[in-house]
Structures are given as structure tokens and as C-alpha cells.
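User: Hi! I'm working on a homework problem where we have to compare a predicted structure to a textbook description. Could you give me the structure for the chain below?
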Amino acid sequence: MRATTPLAGIGFGLLAYGIWGFFPLFFRQLSHVAPMDVLSNRAVWACVFVSLLLTLRQGWGKVLAVFRTPRQFAMLALAALLVGSNWLVFLWAVANQQVVASSLGYFLTPLVNVLLGLLVLKERLNRLEWISVGLAIAALLNEVLSLGSLPWVSLFLAASFGSYGLVRKQVPVDAISGLWLETLAMLPVCGIYALWQWQTASHAVFAAPDALTAWLLVAAGVLTALPLMAFAAATQRLDLASVGMLMYINPSMQFLTAVWLFGEPLQNARLVSFGLIWLGLFVFSWSMWRKYRRPAA
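Assistant: Happy to help. Predicted C-alpha cells:
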């Protein structure tokens, strides 16, 4: 039984990152819907779907325990703000042919996590981690000097998702209960937005223009929950180094989708940025592998 556990963990990890990597293809089918409309429907239907899961698994006790701890709920509300804004910018990127930039952001995320550990958690970086951070900074400087502007989409996606991971890690709540509470915290903002749209433009945010769009919006909520469940199952069965290696599947799939399927332009200068970040990720991954495979003294 033990021998199959890592294999099952890899399977769950491939499922999680595969679904996330598939997101540009899926959400491109909703590009005719405003990104904030998609986000609002995504939050509502994810909350409904996870509510059903919690009922089936009899997991409401863990949710109620969080309500009795105001600090934990406040931290989850902050996590909801971070991941919600990440979803919104990602949806905007897909709708505006910026998937290359979004993949760059998710490639940057592990290196942002290293910086957050240094700045917030006061962690010490080893020589290889400093080199990986330096290569990421060189990539950003190349963007500014060659393309004339900061890649704000990439930076926002990396910073928001990295910060979300930092906040979420400090709340001892399981993935399903945490996701339900995060989507619950998004609902007031989504409700205010829907009311404002109705009053100012007579636009019904939660009324789809056709049946296919309606089903896609429902599916968006379900697809929000499924990879998180698979990711939680993977982290329970694999060490952090193995999970870290699987992490690059998502941005790699996004990058290939943007270039080969969507036909987004890839300037030579941006290819240099990707090369620097890929080199930085290789150095970072090698450092992580050495750290977690080092024999105990």
C-alpha cells in the first residue's frame, strides 16, 4: 500500500495542475462575458458546489469552528480578497489575449514565494536561492529596458497568488472548508457589483444570455473546487520537492496554449525574460531538491 501512495500523489498532482493549465482554453469560451461577471458567477457556483461536498462529507463542524475564531475568518477573508483579485486579472488576461503574460506570472510565483519568505517570515536564503531571485530580477529589468514597461499582469498574478499562499498557510483550515469560507467572503462584493450593474445598466450579472453560457458559468464554479481538492490530496502524499516539480505544469500549459493555439505574439525580448526565469526556476528547483533530499545528520 505504501508503494502506491507516491504514485497516487503524482496522479492527484497531475490532475490539479492539468486542470489549472487547461483554464485558458476553458475561460476563452467565456470571453464574451465581462471578467467581473465571470468572477461573480464563479464564486457563487463554487460556494454552492462546495456546500454540497461539505454536506456529503459532514464537514460543517470544521466550518463552524472557524466562525468561533474571528482571527481565522479575518485571515480567510484577506485570502479571499487576494485570490479573487488574482482570478479577476487572470480572466481579464484570457479575454484580452494576454495569456503569455499570465503564464509568465505563474512561472514567477515560486520565486515570489522565496522573496516573501525572506521579507515577511525572515527566512534565510541559501546561495542558490539568491541566484534564482537575481535571475528573476534580471528578467524584470529586461522587460523594462526592452519592452519599455513593467509586465504588470505578470507581476500582479505572481504577487497576489504568492501572498495568497502565504496568508492561507497561516490558517489551519482544510482545503474544502477554507475554499467555502473564501467564496463566502467574496459573495458580498459580488452582490454589491451585481446590484450596481442592475441599477446603472439594467444588466443582470447572474442571468446568462444563452444556455451554453449558463452551463459554462456553472462549470467554472465546479472547476474552481476540483483542482484544489486534488492539490490537497497530492500534498498529503508527496514531499514538498515533488509538489514543487509538478508546479510548473500549469504555466507551461498556459504558455504553449497562448503561443501555439491562441497565436499570441512572443517578442524576442520576452523570450529572453522567459529564459532567465526558467533558468532561475531550474536553480531554485535544484536547491529545493537538495534541501528535501539531504540525508538527516
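For your comparison, note the following. Residues 175-201 form the longest helix (27 residues). The chain has a mean pLDDT of 87. Good luck with the assignment!
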